[in-house]
Each structure stands twice: as C-alpha cells, then as structure tokens.
Task: structure prediction
Amino acid sequence: MQKVIYLLLRRMRLPLIVLISTYAISIIGMTLIPGMDDQGNPWRMDFFHAIYFVSFLGSTIGFGEIPYPFTDAQRLWTTVIIYAAVVSWLYAIGSILTLIQDQSFRRVLAQSALARKVRRLQEPFHIICGYGDASSWLVRELNDRGMQCVVIDSNQNKVLDLDVEDLAYSVPGLHADATEADALITAGLKLSNCIGVIALTGSDTCNLTIAITSKLLAPELTVICQSDAADTAANMASFGTDHVVDPFEIFGMRFAMMFHSPSMYLVYEWITGVHNAPLSDFRNPPHGNWIMCGYGRFGKAVRKHLAVEGVDTRIIEADLGLTDAPEGAIEGRGTEAGTLLLAGIKGVNGVIAGTDNDTNNLSILITAKTLNPELFTVIRQNHRSNDAIFQAARPDLVMQPGTITAQYIINLILAPLLEDFLKLAHDQDETWANVLVSRVAGVVEDIAPETWAAEISPLNTPAVFDCLIRGEEVRLSHICSDPRDRDVTLPCVPLLIKREDQSVLLPEMNEPLGPSDQILFCGREEARYHLEHNMHDHQALYYSRTGDDRPSGALWRFLTSHVEQKASQ
Amino acid sequence: MNLEKVIFAFFSILALTLNFGFFIGELDDPIHHNAYELFAALTVSLIATIMKFGDRAHIGALLLATSLVADLQLITAALVWGYAAHISDSGLTPMAVASIVSMSGGALLANLVSVILLVIESITFRR
Result:
C-alpha cells in the first residue's frame, strides 16, 4: 500500500503545483485589481473575498459578482481565471485518470492488494508456484481440507482462473515471476504462518531457482519441488529441498507394484487416494512382453521399474538418437499400424502409450486395440482438459502426471507418516498385504478411506497426554472405541505407530500408547471425529477406559464423591 | 547539478525568507505585517511541500514533515486573519495580529529546520 501512495504522490506533484500556482495568481490578481462599491467609491477586494470568489469560480464556474458588481478590469481578470482554472483542473484530473490506467500502477495496486490479503491469512499456508494441472488439483484438495494457500503464476490468465474456480476459501493469486525473490516475499515467504513452498512451474530450472531462493530466505520452511530429471533432482536435494517429486518415477514404481503384489497396489491406491473418491477396481496387468511408445523421461522410468519385475519392453521411439534408446528399439511414432506390427503388436500382452503428446497417445491406443483387442493398455495423459476423450477411449490404466504429483504432495503435507508407512509396507510380503486389504475393506464402505495422523501432545490430545503423565495406561483400543458405546470399535485401522526409537507397523489394539507417539490411521471419516473426541475429552477417555460415565458438573461430582465416601464408611 | 534539487532549494529558501519578511516587525502592529506577504509565504510553502511528495529517502520524509508543519501554521494564521477581519465584530485588533504573527513565527521555525535539513543533505551529498 505504501508503494501505491508514493507512486500516486510522485505522479501528482506537477499537477498539484500547477493548480496551486493558478489559484495563487488568480487570488493575487483579484486583490490587486481596483473595484467599485455600490456608492461608486473605489474599493479593493481583500484576501478573504478573493479566496472565496476564486474557490467557487474555479471549481464550478457558477459565479455571482460579490460583494459589489465588478468593474470591467475585474471582469477581464475573471475571464482569465476561468480558463486558467479549467485547464489546470483538467490537467490534474487527467493525470489521475492516466495514472489509474497505467499498467505498472495497476500492477503495483494488485500486488499490494495481494500482500494485504496474504497478511490477513490467519491459518498456516503454503505458497504454490505455478498454476497448472497439478497445482489446480492441489489447491482444490487443500481447500477441501480447510488449508490455505497462495498461488504465484507468471501467466495473468491462470491467476484469473483462480477467481472463477469454485473454491470454499478464496485463494490469493499473484501474477508475477516466482523465480524472483520479491514475488515470493510478496506472497508471504517471510511471514511466520507460511509453512511451505511448493514449486510446480513445469520447468525444472524455475523449480530449482524457487527452491534455492526459498531455502536461502527462509531455511525453516518445507520446500517441495517437482523435477523430471535426475540431475536437477540431485541438485535440489543437495541444498536441503525437503521433497523432490518425480511423477514418472512414482508411477513407474506403482505400476511395477501391480505386477509384484496386486494387494499392495490396492493398499497404495486406497490410502493415497483422493478425498471422497470411489474405490477403484483394477485389472491385473499380464506379465510377458510389452510395447512402449515413447522413450523419454516417462518411458525410461517405467522401463527401469518393469525390468526389475522381469517384464520385457520393446521400445518405439520417434527420435532414437536424442533419447539414447537401447538396442533393438524401433524408430517411429507408434501412431500408425506399420510400426506397431513391426514391433510385434499381435504377440504382446500390453502396450504403453507414453509420449508427451496426448493426441498421439490416443491414436496409439486406438490403433493398437484394433490390431490386438486383448491388449492391456496404459496411457499417459498430459493435460487434464482431455479427461473426456481419455475416458471414452477406455484404457486399462491412465497415468496423469498432474494428479500423481498433487496426490503425492497432499500426502506429504497432510500425513507425513504415510511415507514411513509405505516404505515399511514395501518390505512386507503379499500375505501381509492381503491381511491389510481385508482389514481396511472391513471398515470402509464404497468410498476410499481417509488417512490421517494423530500425535500425542499436550495441545492436540490433552486427555491422553494427561493420563500418560499421571502414569495411567492408555491403549489403542481405548481411543479407537465409540464414545457412545465402548464395546463398539470405530471403523478405522491403525496403520503405524511411530516413536522415537521404533515404529510399530499395524499395531494391535492392546498396544499401549506413549507420550510422544505419532499414529497413522486409515478409515471412515466419522471414525476420525470420534477418535479425536476420545483423545481430546477427559470424560470420553475416562469412559472408554473404565466403562464409567463420570459426572461432569462440580456439584454432581461433589455429591457422588460424598455418597461414595458414605458408602465406604 | 540536479535540477530537482535546485528548484526545491529555491522554494524552501523562498518560503523561509517570505515567512521571515512577514514575521519581522512589531508583534501586534498591523502596519508591520502585510497580508500579501503572508499569502506569498503560504503559497510557496505549499509548493515546497508538494515537491517533497513521493520522496522515499529518510531526509525527504523529514523535509515533508517540516513543510507540513509550516503549512499548518500558516494556514491557521490565514484563517485567524480572515476571521478577525471579516467575521468577528471587533476587527483586526492588536491581539489578533499578535496571534497571527506568532503563528507565522512557528512556521518560520519549521521552515528554518527545513532549510537546515536541506543544508545537511547537500553536505552529505558526495558526487
């Protein structure tokens, strides 16, 4: 705001000086020019009358000759004043109008309005740089969960898109280049309630710059970056970027998991799923030979993970030299039958359309399916706006880099424990995963389960914490029971307890809790509310631990203890 | 040579001298204090104030503040004059003149500070 006032004052200097000079000269003239009173005596206007006269004359041009009719000399001067005043007012007003229409002024105005909005944010917020497919998902999901964020994008239209999105909380959007430190600071980088920076600009170099800037200016912030290339990712990690997200790598890993352990894949899908999404069904991909069209960063990541599972892939790539394709790769786009036949489409089990062009990918899919209807099809969808046609093409598996990135980041933000859990789960076998699937399936209905974490601390879970401090034992079963009937277990599955020294994977219900435990749950949304109530409310916890419904009012408590004392005597 | 500084110095010093010219003389004697001088001092002071608009330097802010003080005092003096000469029944009494002149004395002090700041600024200005 200060900047705006300065700019306004600076630009208004000359017009104001012109106005003041015009008025001063006019007033002086009026006092110097001889007049005549009603008796015909010579008379001179004094300052008081001159200021009064010029004031109403200059601004409205509706004047009466006061206090006596003017002499001709006075009338001549009045004519001069009329023109001078009108011209200088026009000049002053014109300057203001020009200033308001000035692009740089409007930009400063918009920036200071944004800075004000950001300062007014009460809750912790994230700065999201770049507003593309992944970011719009992310903003929506964070918004649904009541988390604030600020968006920076160098494209004015994308910032305007934010306003028309139907979001529960308004998201401040800044039109600026996020690689400039000033833009990040305007977006609130240095405010105490800024908790993280997420760089999703679509360019690795820009993301890298944003990460460096944020880490230098605010080292304690969590920085999450998207990166598609291994060397930038390593560079980002080297100066402390907290999380580097590579959607291709994540997809490659998950896809390989479908071959390795379908139950584990299902667990992944469920607990990392989108808020309120319907439970997904999936078809197991066949082992054997696969054809992969496009050997860019996506193709390389997927091929690497498939090779671990022993799945052989044949490459079709338009530019063999540039992508450094392996021996035996076929040159071509894969959109025409010839290339696919050459790659042996009739004898393979699956095809992956993984180029960076959505139209080509669809064309590959349709051509391949015509040649071999039994194929398992995997397709990469680069732009979310193509949703409708991709659904119509009915592929078995769609890979959307934006969605994958957004989901991964949401889990990082909302349930940091999830990463620990997934790492531990990865080492388990198929039987373990089957048990978990059946347990989770037992508590959820037809929408994906919620995943959330709880931390035992004086602030978050005062009831549990107080009990533990007093040396009383609290078990997992105590907090997982329905506060209305403690014999009913809430529809949730505790996935992990993390302590300083150990992690308990899938803890049993009689597991005792410690004072700094972090617990990861998965289950229905309603279970979460009851669980939090149990951990928060002393009465509820007392009931679930002992089965006694303790009186809460002071008077009733006194009476009960009195009666108990009497009884014991 | 910076033309902006020259013009500003001109207006600042002119405001001071005009102010001084009005102020000097017997405190309550209307003959010693000319209305035109007060008017000129006020006008020049206003222009000097506007020239400091939008100056983000620290000394610029101080100059703006002192100019505003001078303006305020001179406007008050002019208002008292207008009231005494035209609205009150007793006219321009020595008492009214005395309060007008002392107001302009206050403005004179502010203008003096303004010029001192200006001198300090030009001394520290090395180029």
Helices of chain B lie at 3-23, 35-51, 58-87, 94-124. The longest helix of chain B spans residues 94-124. The CA atoms of residues 11 and 24 of chain B lie 20 Å apart.
